[in-house]
Structure formats: C-alpha cells, structure tokens
Design a protein that fits this description.
The complex is a heterodimer. By secondary structure, chain A is an alpha+beta fold. Chain A is built from 20 helices and 19 strands. In chain A, the strands form five sheets. In chain A, strands 2-1-4-5-6-7 form a six-stranded antiparallel β-sheet, with helices on one face. In chain A, strands 8-17-18-3-19 form a five-stranded parallel β-sheet, with helices on both faces. A three-stranded antiparallel β-sheet of chain A has the order 10-12-13, with no helix packed on it. In chain A, helix 6 crosses helix 17 and helix 18 runs parallel beside helix 19. The longest helix of chain A is centred in the middle third of the chain and has 148 residues. Chain A is flat, with a radius of gyration of 89 Å. The relative contact order of chain A is 0.13. Chain B is an alpha/beta fold. In chain B, about 30% of the residues lie in helices and about 25% in strands. Classes of the chains: A alpha+beta, B alpha/beta. At the A-B interface, helix 7, helix 8, helix 16 and helix 17 of A face helix 2, helix 8 and helix 9 of B.
Amino acid sequence: MKLRRIEIKDFRKLGHVVVDGLGDGLNVVVGHNEAGKSTLLAALRTALFERHRLGGKVAEDMLPYGQAVRPEIWLDFEAEGASYRLHKAFVQKPEAELIGDGQRWTGDAVEERMAQMFGFTPPGRGESKPDQHHGVFGLLWVEQGTAHRALGVGAGRDHLAAALEREVGQVTGGERGRALLAAAEARRAEFWDKRDNPRGSYRLLMSELAEAKERFAGLEAQLRSHEDKVARLGAVDEILARHAASGAQAQAARALEAAHKAVAAIGTLESAAQRAGEGVLHARLKAEAVRARVSERGRLRDGIAKAVAGLGQAESDAGEGDAVVARCVTQAEQLAGQTKEAQTAEREAGALLQRLERAMRDAQAREALDRLAGQLEAARRAGAAQRKALAEAEAERLTDKDVAALQKLDEAVRQHRLRLDAAGVRLKLVPEAGQAARIEGQAEAVARELTVSADAVLWLEGFGRIEIHPGGGIAPLRAALEAAERDLAQALGRLGQPSLAAAQAALARQAECRARAEQEGRTLAALAPKGLDALEADWARYQAQLDRAQGDAEPVDAQAVVAARQAAEAARGLAETLRGAEAEARTALERARVDLAVRTERVTQAKALVERLRGELDRALLAEPDAVLEAMAGETDAALAAAAAGAVAAKAALEAADPEAARLEAKRAEAAEAALREDIERLSRERRDLDIELRTMGRDGLGEARDALEGEIAYMERRLAQMTLEAQGARLLHEALVAAQRESRDRWLAPVRQRSAPYLRLVQPDSAIVLNEQTLELDQVVRGGVPEPFSGLSVGAREQIAVITRLALADILREAGRASCIVLDDALVNTDEARLERMHLVLHKAAENQQILILTCRERDFLQLGAPIRRM
Amino acid sequence: MSFAFLHTADWQIGKPFGTVPGDAGAELRAQRFGTVSTIAALAQARGVDAVLVAGDVFDRNEVDDRTINRLLQALRGFDGDWVFLPGNHDAALPHSVWTRLRQMQPGANVVVADTPQPIDRWGGRAVVLPAPLRRRREGEDQTVWFDGAETPPGAIRVGLAHGSVPTRLPGTAEAANPIPETRVQTARLDYLALGDWHGLFEVSPRAFYSGTPETDRHRANSSGQVLAVEIAGPGAMPRVEPIRVGRYGWRQMAVELLDGTAEALLAALAELEHEPGQAVVSLTIAGSISLAERHRLAQALEGWRARLHHLDVDDGGLLEDPTPDDLDALDSAGFVRQALDALKAKAADPADPEAAAARVALRMAYLDHMRSVAS
C-alpha cells in the first residue's frame, strides 16, 4: 500500500492539514511540537481502522477541544495496483466513501472492503485495538516514543508467520503439528517427570516389581530353610533308627555294669590293704613305746653316774677355794702393818719442812718492809705536793677560754679607741713659748700631739679655750668604745681580775700549777705504780706477817729447806705405794671369798641331783623290773614284723588287680553310656521341634505363595519391559518432535536474519537479531557471538534495531504480497549523530523498495537525508 | 476276576499360574480341583475299583494346608480307593505333604503309597506295586523291587511309577527317575501306570502315561484326559480307553506377517471361534507391518483378548515399517514429518540401541494422529 495524499479537517488539534505529493520512497513530514504530527498518524489510523459510525468517548476525542464540529479525513492511496480515495466523516452525519479500481463503496461496506484489502479485522463495537484489529499496521506504523519498545506484532502475527512460511517454503505444521506435539508432551509426562525420572504408573510398576522380588527372595529363603529342616528331619530319623537297630544303648549299659563290678572288687582289695597298713602302724607304735622305756632307763642310770662324778668335782673345787682365801688374808694383814709405818714417817718429814719454810718467809718479809718504808715516804710526799698544786690551780677560776675572751674584748676596746682616734681631731700643739695646754676637766696638760675624739674644750694657755666638736660619726664610735670598755670591765669583774694582764698572769700561774701537779703525779706513779694505796697495803701486809711470826728468828738455810722438802717427798711416795698395795690385797681377798661361796653352793646342788636321780631309778625299778621290760620289748618287735608281712601281701594282691585300668574303664563306660543317652534324647527333642515347625510352615502355605509370586514377577517383568519401551518411545517421540520443530523454526526465522543483516551491518556490525519463535517479538540481539536480551540494550540501540527489524519484516511481508508503507513518528530521537547518519543510509536502502513516511519535529536531523520535506 | 480302574497323574494341585493375572488365573487354579471332582464323578459313575494317581498329585510339598483340604473334599465324590503315588514334585520326604495329609483325617479309602510295599486291598484280585519317590532327585530306578515282589497267585499285578522311560519318550534324555521299558516284562506286570509326562502317551500296550487331566501348559501334547483301564484277569491284555475330562484348552500359536498386513494373524485367530472362553492362548507374532496395519492389529487383539479366557501376546519380533502413506497421513511436510523421518531412520538401524523405542515412538505418533482425526 502506498499513501499519496492526506487531508485532515477538524480532527483534534488539526484544523485543516494537507500533506500532498508523497512519493514511493522516503518522505519527511516536519512539524514542530504541538503542530500535530502525531495527530496526523492518529488520523491515518482512524481513517483506516475506526468505523465511521463510531460513537461515544472515542468519537468525542476526535473533536477539537470544545468544538462541535465534524472531523473529516481524505486519504488517497494505492493498493493492489489500483488507486483509491477514501473519505470518512465522524461524529456528526458520519459518512464513509471509498472510490477506486472502478468501484465505489459507501457506509459499512467501506470498512469491510478495507479489512479485506489490508488483512485486518474491523472491531465489532467500540474502538479498535491495534494489536487485534490493525493487522500488520500496528507493526509498521510506529507512534512517537514507542519505537524502542516491543514490535507490537499482535494481530499481524499470522500474516507474518504466513509470510515467513511462504518465504521458507515449508508448512510448519500449523495446528495439527502443534497438537501432535502437545499429545507427545502429555504422553511423555505420563512416564517421566520434569527431571526425567520415572513417574506415575511406570515408577509404580518398577517399585512394585522390586518389592515383589524382595518378597520372593524372602519366600525362597524361607523355603530353603524349610527344605533344610525337612532334610534335617530325615537325617535325625535315620540316626535314631540306627541307634535303635544296633542296640548300642543296651551294650553300653552292660559294659557299664561290668566296669562297676570290677571297680567294686578293686575297692574291697583296697580296703584290705588299708587295714593291713593300719595294723602295721599300730604294731610299730607299740614296739617303739616299749623301746622308749628301755632306753629311758638306761639314760637314767647314766645320769646318775654323771651326777656322782659331778659332785666329786664340786667338792674338790670348794677345797681349792678355801686355800685361796687363807692366802689372801695373810697377805692383807702383812701389808696393813707396812703401811702404818710409812705413814708415820711421812708425817714427821712434813712437819719439819713446814717449820723451815716459815722461818725463811719471815726473813724475806723483814727485808721487804725496809725497802718499802722509804718508797712509801717519797710517794706520800709526791702525793701531797701534787694535791697542793692542783688546789692552787683550782683557786684560779679561770680558763683559757675566759682569757681569750678577755683578750678579744681588750682588742675590741683598742680597735674602737683607734677608730675613735682616727676619727678624732688630731691636734698638734706647737706652743710658741711652751705654753701648756689642757683639756678642761683634766688636770694634766696634754701632749703635743693629741687626738680629740669627743666634745672637748681645750684650754690653751695664754689663749683661752678652744671648743672642739669632732664631727659626725664619732658619737657612735665613742659609744661603741664605751660599750666595749664596759664589756671588758664587766668581764674582768666577773672573773675577779683587775685587768687582762692580771688575768693572763693568773692563767699562767694556773698552768704552772698544773704542770707541777703533773710532774708530782709522775713521780708518784713511778714510786707507786699500783697506786699509793696499794703500796700502803703491801707495807701493812708485811708488817702483819712479821707481827705474827713473833720473833722466832732463827737462821734459815736454804739448802736445808730443800733437803727437807726432798725427804718429805720420798716419805709420801712410799706411803702412797704401800697404801695402794694394801687396798689391792683387800680386794683380792673379797673376791676369793665370793668365789668360795659359789663353789660351796655347787656342791650342794650336785648332792641334790644325785639324790633325785637315785630316787627315780628306784621307783622305776619298783614299777617294772628290768627283766619284764626286756620281755615286752621282744613281743612287740615280733608283732610288728608280722603286721608288716601282712601289709606287703595285701598290697601285692591289690596291684595284681590293676585298679588304674579298672577305673579308667569305668569312666569310659560311664561317659559312653551318658553320651549315647544324651544323643538320643537330644535327637528326639530335635525331631519333635522340627515336626512342629514344619507343620506350622505348612499352614503358612509358603510354597504356593512363592510359586504364585514367581509367576507374578515374570508377568510384571514382561509388563515393565513393555512399559519401558513405551516410556522410551514417548520420550523419543517428544524429543524428536521438539528438535524438528526447533530446527524448522530456525530455518523459518532465517529470513528475518537475512533481511536485517545488510541494515544491521550499517549500524551495528557483527550483530544479529533473534525473534521469539512464538510471538515473533524481538527477543535477543547477538553481538559478537554473545546473545543479549533486547531489553538490556540502550534506548538508542533499541530504536535502531527495532526500526531495522520493522524494515526487514516489511520486506518479507511485501514479498508475500502484503506491501505496506512504514510510518515512523520521531522514531530515532535517542540515536547519536554518527549512528543517525548511518540510519539515514539504512532508510535510504529500505526506501528503494518501500514507501517510508517519517514524521519529525527535528528538521535538521533529516535535512541531509535527501528526501523531500513537507511541512505541516 | 477283572479289575477296573482309572489311571491318571500329574494333577499339579496348587500350581499358581502366576503368569495369568487376576480372575483368569484364579479360575485356572480352581479348575484343578474341579477336574478332580470330575474324575471322582466319572469313577463313581463307572464303578471302578480304584483311581491310581501316578505321582505329582501336588505341585510341590509346601502347598497350603487349605489346598490339601480342598483336594480331600474333591475326592469325596468317589468312595472307591484312591491310590496316590508320591512323585518328584511331591516326594515322600520325612516331612511332606503326605505326612500332613495323613494328619488331616483323610477317609479310609485314601491310600498314600509312600513305601515300596505291595498294596493288596481288592480281595486278592489285584495288587498294586508302587515305586514312590522318597527324595526330590532320585538318580536310581525305583521300580527295581517290582521284579522280586511276591503277590498272591491269581492277582493282577499293576505297577505304579513316576519317571521317564528314556528310550521311549520323545526328546527326554535326562536320566532323572529312569524306568526301563523292560520293567513290564521283568516284573510280570499286567499294567504299568506311569506319570511325569504331561501328555497321554503309550509306551507299550501295557505301559501308558495318562498325562495330566487338566492341561496346564502351552505344549501340544494331548493332555486333559484320563485312562479308563480294565484288565480281565492276570496276564490278560488291558483295555485302555482315554476319556476327556479337561476343561480349558491351551493353545500355542505363532504367526508370521510377511506382507506388511495383519491378515495372517486375523486368519489364525479365527480358528479360535470354537469355545474361545475356554481357550488359554499364547500368541507369538513376528514380521514387519505398516503403522496403519499395526493399529488395526492392536484393535483386533484387544477384541480377542476379551473373548478368550487368557491371551498372552509376544510381539517382540514384530517390526513397524512405516510406509510413506503412513507418514503422509501424519504430516506431509513440516516439522512433524521431519521428526518422523528421523525416527524411521532410527528404527531401521539395527545398530541403534534406541531402535525399538523409535518403533514404539512411531506407533504412538500414529495412534495420536488417529485419535485426533477421530475427535
């Protein structure tokens, strides 16, 4: 279809608009905002799709605001090789007229004819809906701001699909194909779930079969056990039968009895041997008892003999002891006498020595006394002198410190005087004629040179008076001087000295006294090193000594003293020795006495023993004379011999009977009999138990259950195999159909890729468009091999691709006989300049085969397009 | 002094028929007792002296007590002697179905021949020499003692044994429970009643297998009968009459479809028109067939399944071979056709492990198509 002329009157904001001279290819209609270019598109749609008798709100919306007018639209177009003019008037006196191809339609027939021509469905009542009623025009007439959204295939889908199919030259299967696919999918879903696992009755059969197999295995096991039990039962029966047949039990019993008998016999022999043994024991005991008595007697006799001997010995010992004692007594007496003599001599020698020594000491004392007298005298004198000197020193109550202080004070006075003098007025008197001068108040004349340190009046002879007032500063000096003099006087007074010189002299005297005292002291010390008192004491002692001596002054010879001393020494020594010897002798005597006592005691004991033993022997002989005892010993010995012989015989008999073997045999026989009995009992029990068990199993009907189950399992397995095949077939069928469909669609949508490729190359190289198979909407764009969702692209890119896709689809539709013009209302407003240039190329290319009407407010954008421009 | 008896064997009481599910299986199981009642009625009507059952009375020793009781009930129809020989399925073990049966108060006319001792109950007219199996697997011939068995003079000697006559039975070379064909002569038997082979079979004029009275498997072996035997006197030739007592007919059919259609099968099934309700059929189908025909075949089989007592179909050897018409019917062009072509290629490739599944897939597609066409 190609539009040639559009005239609009009283339609919304368009009062009267004519767009004329639309060519075959590109046409640009420029209208600035509010000029109404979108209204133009709306008017086109209205003219084509709305029923002229449309009422209600939609019709009112066609009216310009607030006006009650009659919107009219004239449309000149070419379609199917013929020219047509369409005229519709709305709202008031609605009209429709279509003239063309040598025919004329009016009224509703116009809409029918239009629908027929352009393959759309007119709306029944009310407003048309683009996606239902506008056929492919919804796709190809793009309103402002919608370019980048979905293509809006809508009702044009089938046209498009048909066009594509025609293009591909293949019937896609249509409804029936889809129905088969749906059936295959449903059947597949019967067998398989979404994760391709068995489900439903298929899975149920599998699990039932598995369960049945389990049960079968269980039954088989039980039956096997049953079989085993039956076999066991047979075996048990066999053994029991064998036992019964062979009479083993009776035989065992007999053997046992025989063994017991043998054992009993052995027992008898054993007890006989035992008894014999006991007899021997008895006899031995008796014989030994007698023997014991015999030897006992012998011992007694021996004992007596020994005791007698002992007694003899003891007596002789005692005799010896006596002798010793006697000897000791003698010796002790002897020594006692000697000792007494020695002691007397000693005493005499001592007395002599004492006398001599005393005399010597007295002489010595006299000498000392004389010596000491002189010494004492001198010492006394020195002491007195010393005391005196010290007293003198003490009288002068003066110390160095005092004198030093006095000196200082004196010095101070002198200093002050000097200062005063210095501060005083120095007068040098030079009388012309030797006149005198005198200080008033003083009698004597003054010297020729003098210093006046205080107010003074100087009387000059022959002159008169001179009042002298020494200058300032002198008063304090004078005061100080007076103070110092006062201090000095005070100090002197305190010390009781008239003057410093006196004090010094006193101090010197004191020192001298002290020195003297010291000297005396030294002398005293020399004389009486230990002190005077000690000296006095010595003297007194000697004196006392002499007093005591009382004039027994015989001359003493030192040698005599020495000799006397030696003699006394010797005498004492001798006495000592003898005293010691005597002591020893006494000790020895004591010992000997003790010893004797002991020996005597021994003798007594020995006697007693002999007595006792003899008594015993007498009693024993009385009770049992020797002869009787001997006889008894002989008897018992004989009895013992006999018993021993008997025991030996009994033992031999026992051994001959082989007790060990008999016992072993008895044990064996017992064990054998018991084992046999137990075996038979056990088997009988087992047989009973098995019988009961088997009977119970019979009630359970295991065998039939197993066989039945076996058949069921076989049946189920066959069914499962069949069902598996069906399940696989269902899946295979579905998969094959899906794959085939997909492949066919790929081929089917190929034209879109092909047609859009050259356009895309101009704007978005290395890209491909992918439409959704079902809806034929833009799904994806593959760029550089990477698919991206259409919605993820920028608005500009989407605009471009959407426009290109529409161009491609328009191509396809045109080739299928559905030519239509494309209307783009500001469809590329988001595209950058560079791409816009390229889009112009695209549009040019497309316009070679297609009428394209561009409505825009951006004249500049399309100036370079090279298309005729109309302005609204 | 004649002696008349029924010779039967291999009742297999307690056989489960597990491969026949549901009611059909239950009915087969129940019929085993039903056939015993039939035999009892027959014996009573004919007034025979005894019914000799030559082994495998029970399917196994471990049958339910209830099963034993039901059998005893079924035996009540005949008050003559029932002589049961333990076979290999129901050997006379120390604890066996026979020890249990004895404890259930069977009537005095129920004789369990579980010892190799002559049975003399008919006033000296006849003596039955049984060769019971006392173990599950008996490698030796149990009839050896027949030769030396003493019987009263003038008594008819009837042997009763269970096993195989290796030289005579078709195709059995196994030596389990062997019975030499000369036994009749060496033991001076007037008749040898044999069991173990489930079909009626004459070993020699005096030695017969009666077969099972109620067929229990799909082999064509003329089972479902009992033998009515009458011997006039010792040394006389026995008169043997087979009598049908079985109810269900077991058939095994194999059909090969070579022309791509189901015709051959439908023709074969038509043979079952006579009493289909008593037919237990095992059907094996092989060959190749178009999808359309497969559909037709499936419908036919469904119909027959409802009419037969039980139908077991093995169609593993039947291959779908979709014709172009088949595929066109589904989709002349478009992705469906593409898918079908791929599946057809898969199905035709023997090396493809999914070939069988692909065939099933094709069948399903066709089925869906037929359904959608129908709706």
